[in-house]
Amino acid sequence: MKTRDRIVYAALELFNENGERNMTTNHIAAHIDISPGNLYYHFRNKQEIVREIFNLYSAELIERFTPVQGQYESLTLLNHYLESMFALMWKYRFFYANLPDILQRDEELHTDYIAVQDTLQKNLVDIIRAFVDINLLDIAEADLQKTATTLHIVASSWLAYQSAMSHETRITEEVIHQGVLQIISVVKPTATKTGYEQLQLMEEGVKAMHA
Questions:
Q1: Which residue, of 6, 28, 31, 189, has the greatest Cβ tally within 10 A?
Q2: pTM of the model
Q3: Distance (Å, whole) CA 208 – CA 13
Q4: Is 140 helix (H, G, I), strand (E, B) or coil?
Q5: Which residues contact 103 (CB under 8 A, 6 or more apart)?
Q6: Tens digits of per-residue pLDDT, 106-116?
């Protein structure tokens, strides 16, 4: 792996485990046993590393939440999107947990974030519409955007909310699974009978992971 990539992935690991605010470029360099000077050859400061991590996150986010083409069983599609949500929230948990603070410190990153989220919102509307078309959800066309916005708000703010509501700052897989359950609870009232049954199965599966 190239040194630049090692720096980025080391930073992601340290930010997730210890919080981005608590980690410096010296911590990152020491973690992969390179000199600070070597790190600065690739990145001028920590904020550039954060931007690079955001680029990875953005690419994965749009890839995972682009409407799936082709014929798939409805339960397979539901699992795909919920598993993607969990995977992203876990892999980039430092970003979700401290989103307002990170964006306020970097106007360029904030602009890029808004652009990516605009694309995501459009994709979410198309994904929800697809679930309506296969009779999993019963949502009027006029309400698709509102539903997408609600789901987006819950997913993007869940970890920040949990951090604010607890003295324990460590984000665990269980906390993220609770966020997935919250998403399911938001969707349930709009589900058809078939959709409700499938969401119930998924909910039970998530709960069983921590029984």
A1: 28
A2: 0.88
A3: 27
A4: coil
A5: 109, 110, 113
A6: 999 999 999 99
